[in-house]
Specification:
Organism: Tepidicella xavieri
Enzyme class: lyase
Keywords: Cell wall biogenesis/degradation, Lyase
Number of helices: 13
Number of domains: 2
Strand content: 15-25%
Protein name: peptidoglycan lytic exotransglycosylase
Largest sheet: 6 strands, mixed, barrel
GO molecular function: hydrolase activity, hydrolyzing O-glycosyl compounds; peptidoglycan lytic transglycosylase activity
Distance between the termini: 34 Å
Shape: elongated
Structural class: alpha+beta
Helix content: 25-40%
Order of helices and strands: HEHEEHHHHEEEEHHEHEEHHHEEEEEHE
Strand order of the largest sheet: 5-15-12-14-13-16
Number of strands: 16
Length: 441
C-alpha cells in the first residue's frame, strides 16, 4: 500500500448551500469514522499476513477522484478550517480529576531513542486537547493493532479488550495510568512536522476490455523477483516479451490510464466491477508487488518542462486532455508499475479500509501512516494539527507506512474511501505535532 500527499487547490469559495451539503458530508464521515461496530469486537488474532511496505510515492503530486466516466461527480471542497474533534461539549477529564493529578505527579522516565526520532517524556497537560477526545472511536482501531502487536505493546492488549466497552472517563483514566506520553521530535530537537491525508479510491471497472475500457490492472507475473528490476512501465506497454508474461494476469480494465496510475499511487482501492454477464459487484485491490524500478512523479516531469504550473491532479488531467498524443510519454516517465491482488469485500471488510503495513485493516479517521524508523507499528499517537484546512486533535494508531512518509514528525491521515474521504484527504497538508504513547515502566 502506498500513501499520497494531497494539496488540492481551492479556486473558489463554495456557496452557502454547498457549504451546508459539505458539512452534512463531514458529519456522515465523522459518524463513519467514530461509530461503534455492531458486530462483536474482534479479540483474537486473524490469520492474515502483513503486506509489504507501501511503494514509494512523490511528496508533491496530489490525488483527485476518479476521472470520467465515473458514477459520482467530483466532490465539493470543504470550507477552510473544519474541526474534526470539537464535538464533545465538555471535557471528559480535566487536570482536576484524580487520575490526571496522579499521572502528572509521577516522575518522568528518561528520553527514548527511536532510530530517526527522539522521544521526550512529557506531562499529560502538555498534550493540546487531551481529555476532550471521544476515545471510544479509536478503540476498534486499537483492537485491530492488537491482532498483530509488537511485543511490548501486546502485553497490554488484554486490558485494551477489557476497556472496549468502558465509559469515556474509564478509558481516559486507564490510558493515563498505563501509558506515558512522549513528544516525538527529530534528533536536532525539531518537533514540528507535516500531516497529509490519503484515502482508498473507488473506481468503475470492467472484467473484460471493450472500446472504452482499455487500461489493464495486473496481478504480479510469476517471473517477478523481489529486489530485482523487472520490465519498466514503457516496456510493459510495448515489449512483446513483457506482454506475453502478463497475458492472463489482467484483473480488470479501466477507462482512464490516469485512474490506473492513481490506484497504483494509493496502493489499493475498491473496484465496482461489471462482469461479462452484466452483474456488478465491489472488490478490493490490494498491493501485491512492484516492478523494482524507482518512482518518478509525472507531476514533477510536467512541472520541470513548464507544461503545468501546479503539481495537482487537476492540472495533470487537464494537460492530458489537451495533449492525448503525449499521455503515454508522460506515463512512461515513471518507470514503476504496481501489481495487485484481488480480495473479496464482505460486508464486514467494507466497514474498514485496506490492510496497512502493520497487516491490519485501517480505520477511517483513526489510522495513520508513519515512518517505521521513528514510530513502531501499533503505537497509539496523539496528533495535533491546527489547520489551515482542518483542525485535528485526536488519538490515532500507527498502522501503515509509505515511501514519502519519512522523518520523525511525519504522518499520513487515513480518511476512508470514496468522494467524502477524498475531499478530506485532498485538503490536508498542514503542520503537525505528535506524542507517542508507550507503556509505563
Amino acid at each position: 500500500m502506498v500513501h499520497q500527499m494531497m494539496n488540492k487547490k481551492i479556486n473558489s469559495a463554495p456557496s452557502a448551500s454547498s457549504n451546508n451539503r459539505v458539512m452534512e458530508r463531514v458529519t456522515v464521515w465523522l459518524r463513519l469514522a467514530g461509530r461503534r461496530v455492531a458486530w462483536p469486537l474482534i479479540v483474537g488474532t486473524l490469520a492474515a499476513c502483513a503486506t509489504p511496505p507501501r511503494p514509494e510515492t512523490p511528496p508533491t503530486v496530489p490525488v483527485t477522484p476518479p476521472a470520467q466516466p465515473a458514477p459520482a461527480p467530483v466532490p465539493t471542497p470543504l470550507p477552510p478550517t473544519v474541526s474534526l474533534d470539537e464535538h464533545w461539549p465538555q471535557p471528559v477529564v480535566t487536570p482536576e480529576h484524580d487520575e490526571w493529578r496522579w499521572a502528572d505527579s509521577q516522575p518522568l522516565p528518561p528520553p527514548l531513542q527511536r532510530g530517526k526520532s527522539v522521544w521526550q517524556p512529557v506531562r499529560w497537560s502538555e498534550l493540546p486537547g487531551w481529555g476532550r477526545d471521544a476515545l471510544h472511536e479509536v478503540w476498534n482501531a486499537w483492537l485491530r493493532s492488537c491482532e498483530r502487536p509488537a511485543p511490548v505493546l501486546g502485553a497490554l492488549c488484554a486490558e485494551v479488550r477489557q476497556h472496549s466497552i468502558a465509559s469515556p472517563q474509564e478509558q481516559h483514566a486507564w490510558v493515563m495510568r498505563r501509558w506515558q506520553p512522549y513528544r516525538v521530535q527529530a534528533p536536532d530537537g525539531q518537533a514540528q512536522g507535516l500531516l497529509t491525508g490519503y484515502y482508498e479510491p473507488v473506481l468503475p471497472a470492467r472484467r473484460q476490455p471493450d472500446a472504452v475500457h482499455q487500461t489493464p490492472l495486473y496481478a504480479a507475473p510469476p517471473t517477478l523477483r523481489a529486489g530485482q528490476p523487472w520490465f519498466t512501465r514503457e516496456q510493459i506497454a510495448t515489449d512483446p516479451v513483457a506482454q506475453a508474461q502478463l497475458r492472463g494476469r489482467e484483473i480488470a480494465w479501466l477507462a482512464d490510464p490516469l485512474d490506473a496510475l492513481l490506484l497504483q499511487i494509493q496502493g489499493s482501492g475498491r473496484l465496482v466491477i461489471t462482469e461479462p454477464d452484466g452483474r456488478q459487484h465491489t472488490v478490493r485491490l490490494a498491493f501485491a508487488a512492484h516492478n523494482g524500478h524507482p518512482y518518478r512523479s509525472v507531476g514533477r516531469w510536467l512541472l520541470d518542462r513548464g507544461w503545468i504550473r501546479e503539481g495537482t491532479w487537476e492540472a495533470i488531467r487537464a494537460w492530458a486532455a489537451e495533449n492525448p498524443q503525449r499521455v503515454d510519454e508522460m506515463l512512461w516517465s515513471n518507470p514503476r508499475t504496481v501489481f495487485f491482488r484481488e480480495e473479496p469485500l464482505s460486508e464486514l471488510d467494507a466497514q474498514f479500509g485496506p490492510r496497512g503495513a502493520q497487516g491490519v485493516a485501517l480505520t477511517p479517521g483513526r489510522s495513520i501512516a508513519v515512518d517505521r524508523d521513528s514510530i513502531p507499528y501499533g503505537t497509539p499517537v496523539w496528533i495535533h494539527s491546527p489547520g489551515p484546512f482542518a483542525h485535528v486533535r485526536r488519538l490515532v494508531m500507527a498502522q501503515d507506512t509509505g515511501g514519502a512518509i519519512i522523518g520523525a514528525v511525519r504522518a499520513d491521515f487515513f480518511t476512508g474511501w470514496g468522494d467524502e474521504a477524498y475531499t478530506l484527504a485532498a485538503g490536508i497538508k498542514q503542520p503537525l505535532q505528535m506524542w507517542a504513547l508507550w507503556p509505563r515502566p
